[in-house]
Specification:
mainly alpha; flat; 2 helices
């Protein structure tokens, strides 16, 4: 999941990190 997060937003702040993580996990 960490790899996907980085690919989606390499410079995403911690605030966006949880948001992307939830979407990836749900998908």
């Amino acid at each position: 999941m960490e790899t996907i997060e980085r690919v989606d937003r390499p410079a995403a702040p911690d605030d966006d990190a949880p948001h992307l993580l939830v979407i990836d996990d749900d998908t």
